[in-house]
Amino acid sequence: MGNSALKAHLETAQKTGVFQLTGKGLTEFPEDLQKLTSNLRTIDLSNNKIELLPPLIGKFSFLKSLVLNNNKLTALPEELCKLKKLETLHLNGNHLRQLPAAFGQLSALKTLSLSGNQLRTVPTQLCGLRHLDVVDLSKNQIQNVPDSVGELQAIELNLNQNQISQISVQISHCPRLKVLRLEENCLELSMLPQSILSDSQISLLAVEGNLFEIKKLRELEGYDKYMERFTATKKKFA
């Protein structure tokens, strides 16, 4: 991609606050973007070949949305955690194994998408995020859901297509969790905490494609309580 093309994109971004450059084979984050640290509200560099996010990402203090789907990121810089206004972070289809230690400082974050990475556990850093609505951790290598998950503030947690065989009973304490997706994992029915059914806020539990038949779920104690929440929610959206 020529410099003149990049220049045109930068000029547009200066006016609109949006920099979008997808599927252009970029191997690195465009350094020239640092001229726009106070302008940019949205950066979308999806479908490129970016391997590193430079520390200068921390300077985009007004950034609300950062989209880097389908790149080659293996790690994220700590500086990313300085983005106090960031509400949306999409990092699907990268090679991430963990999140920066200070990730919990992204205090405005509402939507986090990490589908198709190499995470092995639900990152504990997510539990400090008070405004989180949707967390997508599908298509990773997560094997168990730890006790810390009980402090997660999310409304929807997507854990589809992992290798989960154990879930902490603490998940039923999540204060706002309404939707829990666990499709295509390695769960035995006995490993599904019954409190999810009998004693949680969860009104949509998706567990197809595990090591038990769905109809067996209906025999569990608390299933009728779960169905009450499920039906009430359905009526609300009908």
UniProtKB/TrEMBL annotation:
SUPFAM superfamilies: L domain-like
Keywords: Leucine-rich repeat, Repeat
Keyword hit for Repeat: yes
Cellular component aspect of the GO annotation: cytoplasm
InterPro entries: Leu-rich_rpt, Leu-rich_rpt_typical-subtyp, LRR_dom_sf, LRR_domain-containing
Domain of life: Eukaryota
Residue intervals passing through the bilayer: none
PANTHER family: LEUCINE-RICH REPEAT-CONTAINING PROTEIN 57, PTHR48051
Designated name of the protein: Leucine-rich repeat-containing protein 57
